[in-house]
Fold this protein.
Amino acid sequence: MVKFASPEESAQKKATRAAYGTTLAELAEAGVPVVAVDADLSGSTTTKKFADACSENEARFFNCGIAEQNMIDVAAGLSLAGNIAFTGSFAVFGTGRAYDQIRNTVAYSNLNVKICPTHAGVSVGPDGGSHQMLEDVSLMRGLPGMKVLVPADYAAARASIKLAAETPGPVYVRMGRAAVPAVYAADVELEIGRAYVLREGSDVTIIANGVEIREALIAADILAKQGISVEVIDAFCVKPLDTATIVASVSKTGCAVICEEHSVYGGLCSAVSEALAEHHPTRCAFVGMRDRFGKSGSFEELMEYFELDSGAIVEAVKNVMADERVC
Amino acid sequence: MDSQGLQAKANDMRIDIVKMIAEAGSGHPGGSLSCIDILTALYFGGVMYHDPSNPKDPARDRFILAKGHAAPALYAALAYAGYFPVEELMTLRKLGSRLQGHPDCRLLPGVEVSTGSLGQGLSIACGLACGLRIAQSDARVFTLLGDGECEEGQVWEAAMFAAHEKLGNLVAIVDANGLQIDGCVDEVVQTGDLGEKFAAFGWSVSTVDGNDVAAVVEELSRCKAAGGSVPHVVIASTVKGKGVSFMENQAGWHGKAPDAEQLKAALADLAGNEVCDG
């Protein structure tokens, strides 16, 4: 069974991105042949922590400058020489700017390259809509063979990076800038293709990932006080999706709210809806971005403004439970 | 292999290139014929160390075909070298074939990485050169770009990176045939003097007649031996469609298969070359 954070641990807030460089350094120290590339954002993505850990790592780190397309293909070349190549940058540039490189070189050649950008979603806040990547999961999920992980907290991010290193072929790990409370125990180990039931309930299933886990757990607390029993599932692995765990839950609850800090097109909402449509048609409601770009504001303000927060989830739960259509 | 032997080998491969593209009914003869002498130098002229019986030999020199549409030329070289049976060349572009329209490293031994989307090969070669440096390998990385391909901005991201990383173990070759799909490179978007551009980016630059196999062998061998701390680029002047008179210097033959009559004429041209070389 997966281990959860103690109350003391969960009081500590850390950003998922903070796990990146330190986990790479940890892997290198354990003898895993990791290399890292970045595009002038090594301080923000924290790959600098990997590079600065020791002189061996310094030789295994490449700053490509502001040139994301080159960065992805340099990683591809490094993987061809037997390395496990991790890439940096912000999610908006590390996926969108270099999509063709990820598609035609990394994915098509099935290379051991890990696309692990940070600052995804609205967590990048005041930088505004140009920098708030809300379509990255959609882009990466569509690529044949690409595995897609969206960790909820620091420990899950560390576990996801380790999973990426030990899983052959391309893996996407989405990390954010916002500090979020711990959900999992610090040394948690996760599995590709698994979703985790964080809280058991009987009236409705909330399926979320990333920073939406924090919101889902708050919403579950609010709803519990109102007599609504909520099951919360962390679908940190969007692809391959743990359809069995999700179907088992909705078979019990009869309805689902799917939440992501991402467009409802192509990400977790789509992935879960597709799985349920095929295996167990279920009434669903979505919490996510609907055909719009982000805008400047603080992370917390934006979560509320774009109806991605716990309040929006509570409302979505009530709506989906009141929906009497029979699937 | 002596100079005449290399020329004869290149001519044999030209025959297979036009035959396989005709058989496939589609493909890129112009750029395949322009660069086959360069591939002959690399694979048969003793420039690259490679072992077809052990395609993953860690000590091998690497080749990346950045201009992936010249796949028929690469396939001919790999088949003649012994990576797979020559008869398989006639399966080009057919369902179930390992010879995809553009090279697929998951299917075909000897293909280091899948290419076809232009502008990426030089970056991949840079990463591979960095990786070989980490591995303390003496192996070299060769990559072949088109001159039209140099319109891709990523080529210059990679050019800057290679010089910054002092990748003396990297040798880029530009197949400068002067044409791209829509016409003359200088009419579509002028690339100017590519040698001067690479020099400005900090590369060691040289030029060669890219259809003179012996000259290409000499120049690439020199770059390989030079190593050092600057990347090398060889601007190889070539003739698009070289060896087939009606295809030479014709942008229209960039991506078109010859029909039965045209194949006959092409093979007659190439048979004439055989006699001349003989």
Observations:
- Chain B touches chain A through 33 residues (CB under 8 Å).
- The mean pLDDT of chain B is 97.
